[in-house]
Amino acid sequence: MRTKALRVVLLLTLLLSWSVRASASEALSLAEFGKKHQVLVSFDPLTACGQMEQRGVFVSFAAGKPYMILDWRTLRKVEAPYWDQGALMLPAGFVDEAGKYFSERNAPKKEAYSVATILIDPGHGGKDSGAIATVDGAQLMEKTLTLEVSRRVADLLRSRYPERKIITTRDDDSFPSLEDRVAMANSAGLGMKETVIYVSIHANASFNKNAKGYEVWYLNPEYRRTVVDAETVKEKGSDIAPILNAMLEEEFTTESIILARKVYDRLGLSIGASSPGRGIRAEEWFVVRNAKMPSILIEMGFITHPEEGRLLATSSYLRKIGDAIYNGIVDFIEHFEN
User: Fold this and answer.
1) Domain 26-105 belongs to what architecture?
2) Percent of the chain scored above 90 by pLDDT?
3) What pTM does this model have?
4) Contact 60, 69 (CB under 8 A)
């Protein structure tokens, strides 16, 4: 019995010894690690503390302590560095963890896309008054409401993003055609990594006096549109162009849904106590289906509803709507760019 126990002890000792040797064989000295990973290393023998740095990323450690500190913020448990024949050795686990951290933090960054142009489209205008209703004896016209809200949104965006191009399809009581509105968006000069978003603002009306609430629309995903221009078709070939078109179309639809959700959520926070949300919906409005970019159409409420029409007739309520649309656009830009 004693012999059997001795054999077990010897076997465990051999296995442990082999494990230590295997781990040690993968360890690197501090100097070797620095050379292999192109890291600047330093060590203070008085405090037994060291530091590694690679392009502004830091890993701090101490001999004999099973921890490393990542950029002075995060404490991570690892195998402790140890001395071997006068050299400070970094165990395999330490080497792997530190190497992975430097690789992840200093990985080449993809060039980010940015929203360079934001086009705000006040619905209707000029000879086209849009929806009309009488509120407390006064005439309420959709074209007036959309212009007031659009001006608010554009002013806020210009203040926040002076480096971006903020366009409105009209700044007065004029009537740009639907084709003109879309052309303004599609002709925006963009760089290789830049995009434009299109936000069309409207007010609703219904023969049903009980109809009430705000909506945000985006292009129906089942609607097929051409988003690849003729020059790209010529350059890439007629066989490749449909594939590119499908890919871009899918991307624009996804981004339009995200933009719609951001604006819809902000409208809920701003006016949800006064006006019910009627949902995010899919449709094939002309200005949406012909804009080759993420695009949405907002219906900010029913001017034909007695209570909601009265609210829409006040500048304070329209400011709330404008602020909500602005914040939704900002939320989308931060999501898109980050």
Assistant:
1) 2-Layer Sandwich (3.30)
2) 49
3) 0.61
4) yes
